[in-house]
Specification:
single chain, globular, 12 strands, Jelly Rolls, mainly beta, 7-stranded mixed sheet
C-alpha cells in the first residue's frame, strides 16, 4: 500500500481474502473508517470496494440487506455467470455493471467454466444492528 496525505494506492493482491457468502472469495480493498482495521479503513464516505471471486460451478448464498442499509454495484471484470435478483436470474459477463438497490435479494452464480470475478462497490446510509458488514 502506498499512502500519502492526499491519496492511497492499494493492490487487491495485497489484501488478505476471506470466504463469505458461503463460496465467495472476498478481498476488502478499501472501506470506511471504523470498519475492520484502521490500516485498511481510509474512506471518509460510507462505501466499500471489494473483489469477489467465485469458482466455476459455485454460488454465493442468497441474501437481502434490510431496506435502507446497503446497495451494491457489481462490475464483472472476468468470466460470466448470473446474478439472482429477487426472483429473476440475470445473465452477466465481462464488462457488465448491475446496480442492486437496498432491499433487493441477491446472489452471485458462476455457471461458467472459469472463475467469475466481480468488483463490488457497496454503499450504505445507515448500519443495521444485526449486520456485521455490508459486502
Amino acid at each position: 500500500m502506498s499512502k500519502t496525505n492526499k491519496w492511497t494506492l492499494r493492490k487487491w493482491t495485497d489484501c488478505q481474502p476471506h470466504v463469505g457468502h458461503e463460496n465467495v472469495l472476498i478481498h476488502y480493498i478499501m472501506e470506511p473508517k471504523g470498519m475492520q482495521t484502521e490500516e485498511k479503513a481510509i474512506l471518509l464516505g460510507r462505501w466499500r470496494l471489494t473483489r469477489h471471486s467465485l469458482q466455476p460451478g459455485k454460488k454465493g448464498n442468497f441474501h437481502t440487506h434490510p431496506d435502507g442499509t446497503s446497495e451494491h454495484v457489481f462490475y464483472v471484470t472476468s468470466g460470466h455467470g448470473q446474478l439472482k435478483l429477487d426472483d429473476e436470474l440475470q445473465d452477466i459477463r465481462t464488462g457488465d455493471a448491475v446496480h442492486v438497490p437496498p432491499g433487493v435479494g441477491h446472489q452471485s452464480i458462476n455457471n461458467g467454466n472459469e472463475w467469475l470475478d466481480l468488483l463490488v462497490i457497496s454503499s450504505t446510509t445507515r448500519r443495521h444492528p444485526d449486520e456485521e458488514s455490508f459486502s
